[in-house]
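haha ok so turns out i had the wrong file open the whole time. this is the CORRECT one, sorry everyone. sequence first:
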Amino acid sequence: MKAVRYYAPNDIRYEETKIPKLKEGEILVKVEAALTCGTDVKTFRRGHPVLIKKTPSGFGHEFSGVVAKVDEAVANVKVGDRVVCANSAPCGECFYCRRGEYELCENLNLLNGAYAQYIVVPRRIVEKNTLIIPKQLTFAQAAFAEPLSNVVHGIAKTPIKKGDVVGVMGIGPIGLMFALLAKLKGAKVIAMGRNPLKLKLAKEFAHADVVIDITKFKDPTEIILSHTTENRGLDVAIECVGLPQMWEKMFSLVRKGGYVHFFGGCASGSSVNLDTRRLHYDEVKIISSFHHTPKYFREALNLIANGEIEVDKLITKRMDMKYAKRAIEMHRDGEAIKILLEN
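then structure:
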């Protein structure tokens, strides 16, 4: 088969490789749709200690396709089924799984290798996180279940009430989905970013009430606060950039008693300075969320299937799988929200 393989930072190659043999409980999926992702961009630029444990390695993790082959131990899917698979599944047995904190599973091995003609899905993901695609959905739409499931998880941890003013900083695909889900909960949403393509989608996809181009202000604090109740600050602030200075900025924009959700992952070892007075005396509450669980993966697919989230609007361009490197570069350079790679 043909597959994109990761060799080193900025070095991925579309080349011939063998189709792996199935182990017990595994399935082989013919990839019909795969999406570019910010995590893939970071990995492309600097590697990844979890996703890339040895080289060359498979690449890409948001995908859907058709079951091409199954091991005899597989009972929940069959050859010919249209499926979408998450990129992980919890073990169900470790310290965190026993407490229902499945996203923190100590044995959470991540699946990589979706930028290929075929991908082998491990037994645990087959059993816990492989779903039949509803008939009304395309492969491209179904592939959004994985990125959306992270946001569904994040929103579930964030106490957004009807009428709250919610600010979202960083409006890539994840931030845009956060903004839309906050709108669906009845919030007034302020979307903040700097990329014209993303600012446009903040209106057209997320239906944000206020869209602020932060490049037009030396300090956007005043304009952001002017859109909050009595200029007191955001009820909920969601950071989807992953930069320490943005974490600090969003923390400063929350009203007394408000919530700040640090979703964007900063580089390992990063530190931030937060005013302890605000934490204690203003009762500002900090939230964070990581990854997804089988529950949220299913909820995400249902949201797409019900038509509540028009994920097609997030696809900037469709490209052949052999142009994966160019697609990743376009995503990296802000020329695309999501690029759909097809075989």
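The first strand starts at residue 2 and ends at 8.
again sry for the mixup
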